[in-house]
């Protein structure tokens, strides 16, 4: 390993460490311009599709739940709640 005093100055390398210049490459002539295809025709806006035919609403499978009378506890299915017995 070189000591700091023996290092060559920055930017200068001894000739044995320099790479030989690369050989000149043969330059190819630029490729001929390819004929571009004609641009596609502009897109025409299509009218919106007709709305689908309206179907009649399906018949209700069960009658709508009746309102619970006052004082009767009901769940979300309109069934009366069972009494809860707490055992001590």
Automatic annotation (TrEMBL):
<feature type="compositionally biased region" description="Pro residues">
    <location>
        <begin position="28"/>
        <end position="66"/>
    </location>
</feature>
<feature type="region of interest" description="Disordered">
    <location>
        <begin position="1"/>
        <end position="88"/>
    </location>
</feature>
<protein>
    <submittedName>
        <fullName>Uncharacterized protein</fullName>
    </submittedName>
</protein>
<feature type="compositionally biased region" description="Basic and acidic residues">
    <location>
        <begin position="16"/>
        <end position="27"/>
    </location>
</feature>
């Amino acid at each position: 390993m070189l000591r700091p005093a023996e290092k060559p100055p920055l930017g200068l390398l001894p000739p044995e460490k320099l790479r030989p210049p690369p050989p000149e490459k043969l330059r190819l002539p630029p490729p001929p311009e390819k004929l571009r295809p004609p641009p596609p025709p502009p897109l025409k806006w299509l009218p919106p599709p007709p709305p689908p035919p309206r179907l009649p609403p399906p018949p209700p499978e069960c009658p709508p739940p009746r309102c619970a009378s006052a004082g009767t506890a009901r769940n979300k299915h309109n069934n009366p709640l069972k009494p809860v017995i707490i055992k001590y």
